[in-house]
Each structure stands twice: as C-alpha cells, then as structure tokens.
Write a structure and sequence with these properties.
This protein is an all-alpha fold. It is built from 3 helices and no strands. The longest helix has about 120 residues.
C-alpha cells in the first residue's frame, strides 16, 4: 500500500507539474484572453477537488486514478483551447493587416479624388476666364461692328445728301431757266 501511495504521490506530483505548466501558459495569454481565465479558475477548482480527494485516497485508490485521468483530459483540452486561442489571435492579426491595407487603399483613392477635384476647379476657373474674355471680345467686336455700320451709314448718307443736293441744285437751275 505504501508503494501505491508513493506511486499516487508521484502521479500527483506530475499533475502538479502539469498544472504549473498550464498556469504558465495561461499567464502568458492573460492580456487578451478572458475565456482562458475562466478555465484557469475551473482548473484551480479542480485542483482543490483533487487535493480533497488525496485525503480520501486511503479509502479508494480507483477513484484517485479516475480523477487523474480526468485531469489529464482537462489539461489536454486546455492545451487544445490555448492552441485555438492562438489561432484566433493570428486570424485577428491577419484581419487587422488586411484592414490597414484597405485603409491605405482608401487614402490613396481619397488623394486621387482630391486631385480630380483640384483639376476640376482649375478647369472651371479656365472656363470662367475664357467666358469672361469671350464676353469682353464680344462687346468689343459689337462696338467695332457698330462703329463700322455707323461709318458706312454716314458715308452713304453723305453720298445721298450730295446727290440730293445736286438734284435740287439742278432743279433750281432748271426752274430758273424756265
């Protein structure tokens, strides 16, 4: 029986060592992994239950071995869950990297839009300047055209007046001759 108790103590020592490793892993992941904290609490509760059962070892060796198996399974599950949490953390990092890439692309697109808006403003300014010059040129051209018409009309009027004067003069001369 003493040999069996020594074996049980060795197994318990191994369990305690294994639980220490779990505590170390959990301590490293504590900053972002609240779910692991809950499981560590459960493991501590399980450890306390194991300690209580060690006192009951004298009455049931088979019960202790069953508990040892259950703790090993729990330790394996915790390690599996820690691995899953690490995988999740890596996926989050990948997602964050992708978001940064997309933000960079959006900033590039925004710069392109700003450049296009600037070009449109410059084009609008050129159009406004051209429209203003066109209006000034149109007013100047209309002034020149009106001046040409007035000059032409004045010239024609002078020629016509001279003819009328000539005709009147001839009529007066003809009237005098009669």
């Amino acid at each position: 029986m003493e040999e069996t108790l020594k074996q049980i103590l060795r197994e318990m020592q191994e369990l305690r060592t294994g639980l220490g490793e779990v505590r170390t892993e959990v301590g490293e992941l504590r900053t972002g992994l609240n779910e692991v904290r809950t499981e560590v609490g459960e493991l501590r509760t399980g450890l306390n239950e194991v300690r209580t059962e060690v006192g009951e070892l004298r009455t049931g060796l088979n019960g202790v071995r069953t508990e040892v198996g259950e703790l090993r399974t729990g330790l394996s599950e915790v390690r599996t869950e820690v691995g899953e949490l690490r995988t999740g953390q890596n996926e989050l990092r990948t997602g964050q990297s992708e978001l940064r890439t997309e933000v960079g692309e959006l900033r590039t697109g925004l710069d392109d839009v700003r450049s296009d808006v600037s070009e449109l403003k410059q084009g609008q300014k050129r159009l406004e300047d051209g429209q203003e010059r066109l209006q000034k040129n149109l007013v100047a051209s209309l002034g020149e055209y009106t001046e040409t018409i007035v000059t032409h009309f004045d010239t024609r009027t002078d020629v016509l007046n001279q003819r009328v004067f000539k005709v009147e003069s001839e009529m007066k001369s003809l009237n005098r001759q009669k």
